[in-house]
Amino acid sequence: MKDARIAKIVADSIQHFAGDRYDLGAWCVMPNHVHLMISPKTGHDLAGILHSIKRHSASEANKVLGRSGAFWQKESYDHIIRDAEDYWNQRSYILGNPKAAGLVDWEFGGEGAWRLETAATADYIGGFVVGIHGAHEYADELDKQIDPYGSIMVKAIAEERGVKMPSFFGYMLWSCGVLIPLFILMTLIWFK
User: Fold this and answer.
1) Could you tell me the pLDDT band of residue 8, with boundaries at 50, 70 and 90?
2) What's the pLDDT at 125?
């Protein structure tokens, strides 16, 4: 999503059904993730809405990039907006995220029609704050950080990069050849 063409596809996907399937509040598309405040309308649920946004944007982005495979991480973060203070804090964070990341004149964010006009509201506001990370960007971040958990990558990314992933039996051979002898050695040392 560092590519403006891809960021626009994602932004358009977020806004496409706003007002129809959900009310959209503050939102922004960052180079490696998305934030949005969303309140599903009757007959629609968060999972279905996110699936639609992710499916459409992934399909279109992959066409533009001339590739296939995972575009988004399977899971996303969501948080129920509990009260007006939570609403305003989340809104401020989302709208300020591009500036905090040093993105000057970042056009891929804004605010939909869903907005509290006053902080004097009931304790439960409803709606969700959602964070979605891109699969490739996440794997690239792990590579840059030399994260010990970097082996936990989307299989499609590994295949695309030409990384041969061991089969179940490959993992089992490694376990038998390394972990079991190590376990036996540690047992002998600690439980003499």
Assistant:
1) very high
2) 54
Cα separation of 101 and 90, whole Å?
A: 16
E strands present in 81-125: 109-111
* CB contact set of 102 (below 8 Å; sequence gap of 6+): none
**At 70, phi and psi to the nearest 5?**
-65, 135
Query: CA separation (Å) from 172 to 148, 179, 185?
Result: 20, 10, 19
Q: How far is CA 58 from the centre of its chain?
A: 12
Q: Which two structure tokens, joined as six digits, stand for 112?
A: 């939909």
Q: How far apart are CA 165 and CA 90, in angstroms?
A: 39
Residues in the chain: 192
Kindly report whether the global pTM for this prediction surpasses the value 0.85. no
pLDDT of residue 14: 92
Q: Give SS3 for 134.
A: strand
Kind and range of the H or E element at 158? helix 155-160
Residues 6+ away with beta carbon under 8 Å from 33: 1, 131, 132, 133, 134, 137
Characterize the bridge pairing of strands 128-133 and 77-80. Answer: antiparallel
Q: Which residue has the tokens 């995220």?
A: 97
Tell me: the pLDDT tens digits for 37-59?
888 888 998 889 989 999 999 99
